[in-house]
Amino acid sequence: MRKDTALITGASSGIGEVLAKNFALGGYNLVLVARNKNKLEALAQQLEADTKAKVLVEPADLSSSDAAEKLASKLSQQGIDIDILVNCAGVLEHGLYVDLTAKSHQGLIDLNVSGLTNMLSQFIPPMVARGNGRILNVASISAFQPVPSLATYAATKAYVLSLSESLAEELKDTGVTMTVLCPGITATNMVERAQQESSGLKIPDFIVGDVEEVAADGYRACIKGETICVPGVVNLAATVLGRATPKWLLRRISGVVGRYTLK
Ligand SMILES: NC(=O)c1ccc[n+]([C@@H]2O[C@H](COP(=O)([O-])OP(=O)(O)OC[C@H]3O[C@@H](n4cnc5c(N)ncnc54)[C@H](OP(=O)(O)O)[C@@H]3O)[C@@H](O)[C@H]2O)c1
User: Fold this and answer.
1) pLDDT in tens, 37-85
2) Quick one: which of 95, 74, 99, 72 has its CA closest to 85?
3) The pLDDT of residue 199
4) According to the CATH classification, is domain 5-262 in 3.40.50.720?
5) Count of CA atoms in the C-beta half-sphere (13 A) of 10
6) Can you tell me the distance from the alpha carbon of 92 to that of 190, in angstroms, rounded to the nearest whole number?
């Protein structure tokens, strides 16, 4: 029987869209959030037709400081409890720090850091009060080391990883689990856009992951309540090696890779 509701941000495309499909197939009702209302409505229609999920569309720009609070209050007025929160909305800017504008650095922080934190502030307390809930934050393997050419983006994802690991411990014994999904490069609009905007960006095909596999791994880890999920053997090996490598050496290696992507 369907009764729990999963709220998924960034559901209008890429990893978030496929996560929405996974949760609908897994028996959850959905609240879909992103800015593009038309795409969300098309997905909602498709998921309602293909599964038995009830799907609510709530368009929002989560980089606005009051967006999460407005969304939480709207859902609460409708009597909708959020049992699973998936924070997948995110933006990426590729290039040298000095070549990106102050506005684009701020845009990364407003959505990837502040938007995600505001969603957690609104939705964790009711989960703790009910003694039940699951959270899936989407970070990146760029969270594990410095990434020249993606400096601010990687820093925002390091924030998401650190926050999620701390909260996983804080939330122990509350009935609320915290999972952080750390995908490697995945074939979505985000990567396509970065390649179009940064004509020199070179990504070897063998490291580009499949969006269906990434989302399926994230869904499984969230349902099991695992803390860190790194999809793909190559990515997992890179994060394990990265954590075991001295910081100075990791910086040098990241510098070489970062410069290569900008040539
Ligand atoms: N693709 C990769 O290689 C990769 C690797 C590691 C981690 N990730 C992370 O995975 C997540 C999903 O990325 P993706 O690859 O699936 O990219 P994507 O296809 O570009 O999806 C990004 C999603 O975020 C939403 N979004 C963007 N700005 C927003 C805003 N201001 N308010 C609300 N929603 C907003 C977009 O919807 P609207 O435009 O409709 O708002 C879209 O649904 C991101 O957090 C990204 O950092 C991606």
Assistant:
1) 999 999 999 999 999 899 999 999 999 999 999 999 999 999 999 999 9
2) 72
3) 66
4) yes
5) 26
6) 7
- The predicted pLDDT at position 197 comes to 80
What pLDDT shows up at residue 2?
61
Distance CA(197)–CA(36), nearest Å, equals 21
Distance CA 92, CA 90 (A): 7
- Comparing CA positions, the residue from 15, 17, 139, 24 lying closest to residue 84 is 24
Closest atom of ligand 1 relative to the 59 alpha carbon: 33
Q: Tens digit of pLDDT for each residue in 124-142? A: 999 999 999 999 999 999 9
pLDDT-derived band of residue 196, with 50, 70 and 90 as boundaries? confident
Integer Cα distance of 82 and 77 in angstroms:
13
Specify burial of residue 117 (Cβ count, 10 A radius: 0-12, 13-18, 19+).
middle
Q: Which mutation among 7, 8, 13 tests ligand 1's pocket best, with the greatest number of atoms within 8 A of CB?
A: 13
The whole-angstrom separation of Cα 43 and Cα 217 is 21
Residues lining ligand 1, judged by CB closer than 6 Å?
9-16, 34-36, 39, 61-63, 88-92, 111, 138, 140, 183, 185-186, 188-191
| Mutational pocket test of ligand 1: of 8, 9, 12, the residue with most ligand atoms within 8 Å of the beta carbon | 12
User: How remote is the CA of residue 73 from the centroid of ligand 1, in Å?
Assistant: 24
